[in-house]
Task: structure prediction
Amino acid sequence: MGNGNRQGADHSGKTVQPPPSLCRRAEELLEPDAPEGEQLHSKDAAQRLLQELQVHQIELEMQNAELQRARYEVEVTLERYADLYDFAPVGYFTLGRDGAIGSVNLTGATYLGCERSRLIGRRFGKYVADEVRPRFSDYLGKVFAGEGNCSCEVELVREGSSPLFVQIEAVAFGSGEECRAAVLDITGRRQAEGALLRVHDDLELRVAERTGELSRAVEQLTHEISERSRAEGSLLDAYAEITELKDRLQAENIYLRQEDAQQYNFGDIIGGGSAISSVFLKIKQVAPMNATVLLTGETGVGKGVVARAIHSRSTRKERPMITVNCASLPGSLIESELFGRERGAFTGANERQIGRFELADGGTIFLDEIGEMPLDLQCKLLRVIQDGEFERLGGPRTIKVNVRIIAASNRNLEDEIRNGRFREDLFYRLNVFPILVPPLRQRQEDIPLLVSYFVAKFNKKMGKEIETVSKDTLDNFSRYSWPGNVRELESIVERGVITSSGKALEIFDWRDRSRSRPGAEGEAIKELAELEQHHILRVLQKTGWRVEGKEGAAVILGLNPSTLRARMRKYCICRA
Result:
């Protein structure tokens, strides 16, 4: 019986009692006024009842133990989720229909800037800014009306702190008297949207200002165009007159130019300017004499033409003028070409050959590019100049000749002497009567005469009837520096005569490269020389460094092979 007083406890901590029916039966069996037979019988029943109570007690204790464990687990879970609830990054509220706060986590209390215990029972709308409070009230009404799980953005006002922008999402639950609300801080997003709005407003303002400026500029430009249109109307007559005068200037007659050229020519030398007139004077002075003449000047200036003019006005004009280009002859053959050779003089010399000096006997020999002559032959040439005699290669007999020597070089022979490439005594023998042939850039006044002469020449050669040359073309020619000198001008005019289809000379591929600044002539010449050097190098590389022949660089460049070799030496261009 002592065990019959053992009690259990439920999960709430209260004692678990035996069932009331078992308790009443036990009390009835133990009453003292019961009959003896019934008491004896009741003792047996009480014994059985006690056993039932003990069994039931054990069951209750087991149930109590199970409830205790369940209670502990619930408490642990509640504590765990209480932490998650309180420290969640979102504020959680339980609100009544009037907006009264029933519960709130720590994050929500922080949003409102108040202790959690003091918030219970207060209305949430109290913390909503006045201007958006009606919106919040309408939203709360929709939540309790069950109109979907919508959201609302409001501004919270907190005492002593800056306003807070939040987004609320709420849903009603239970009997519909309460709702759960999740409150998210969107202050950073709203601030970014405020900043973006300010930038947008600033940009709109700037666009408006710029649009105003452009509108004013367009208005002004429209006014100026109108004024210009009125002015153009009054200038039409003047323009027509100017055009007529320009056409008259451009329509220059080739026939009249040719007459001028005949008036100012000196054989094949055309010109009337002071620079070329000085050359004419020296030709007249030296031509009748037998003096040796040294012609100097750039490539293409016409040194060969000057040499022919001297010979044609000399007493030797009935005899031939033999021309030798020292740059075009290989070093191994130049001696036999100049002085001749006997049969068997060297391997391959199967016949006797008369040299150029013998052919020029009684006449003139023109030694072009004399600066290219090898040093070992310069001594033999000096002997011919001094004594008028030499021996054929491989022959013992001395041959005497009477030859006038005209030499030419585009090099500075005095520099060649200092560099050990030319004999000084030979230079003095050759430099008896020096003539410097000026470059074409120093003869700009002669360009119209030269153009007329070349047009007439190629008209006859090609059966053309070119009659006029435009003033613009002549102006471009006059401004150009002509690195190729007269030879370049002749080539351009010849190409123009070929390509022209009417009676006016048309230079289609002409490029005005002559727009140089005053005082910058030296710079322009240097630049053109560099361009020529690079152009020659590219063509040589393209042709595999082939100089002569149908597919050689000289043909592509429009130069004589000797001239190309001279320019290669001038620019130090050699195959690596």
Summary: The longest strand covers residues 164-173. Residues 1-15, 247-264, 512-521 have pLDDT under 50 and may be disordered. The CA atoms of residues 491 and 558 lie 8 Å apart. Residues 2-86 form one domain.
